[in-house]
Amino acid sequence: MDGSLAPRIVRTACPHDCPSACVLEVERLSPTRIGRVRGSAAYDYTAGTCCAKVARYAERVHHPGRLTQPLQRVGPKGSGQFAPIGWDAALDRIAEAFRAATARHGPEAVWPYHSGGTLGVLGRWGLDRLRHVMGYSRQKSTICITPAEMGWKAGHGAARGADPRGVAEADVILMWGGNPVSTQVNLMAHIQRARKRRGAKLVVVDAYRSPSIEAADIGLILRPGTDAALALAMMAVALEEGAADRAFLAAHTDWDAAVEAHIRRHTPAWAAEVTGVPEADILALARLYAGTKRCFLRAGVGFTRARNGAATMHAVSCLAALTGSWLHQGGGGFFYALDGWGLDTRLAWGSDLIDPKIRVLDQSRIGAVLAGEALAGGPPVAAMLIQNANSAEVAPDSHAVRRGLLREDLFVAVHEHFMTPTAALADIVLPATTFLEHDDLYLGLGHTALTVGPRVIEPVGEARSNHAVVCALAARLGAEHPGFGMTEVEVLDATLRSSGKGSWAAATAAGFIPAANEIAVGEAFAGFPQPDGRFRFKPDWPALGPYAAGMPGLPSYWLNLEEAAEATPFRLITPPARSFLNTSFTETPGSRSREGGPALRLHPADADRLGIADGARVRIGNARGALTLTAMRFDGLLTGVLAVEGISPSADFPEGIGINALVGADPVAPAGGVAFHDIAVWLRPA
Ligand code: SF4
Question: Per the database record, which ranges form the 4Fe-4S Mo/W bis-MGD-type domain (predicted)?
Answer without folding.
Answer: 7-65
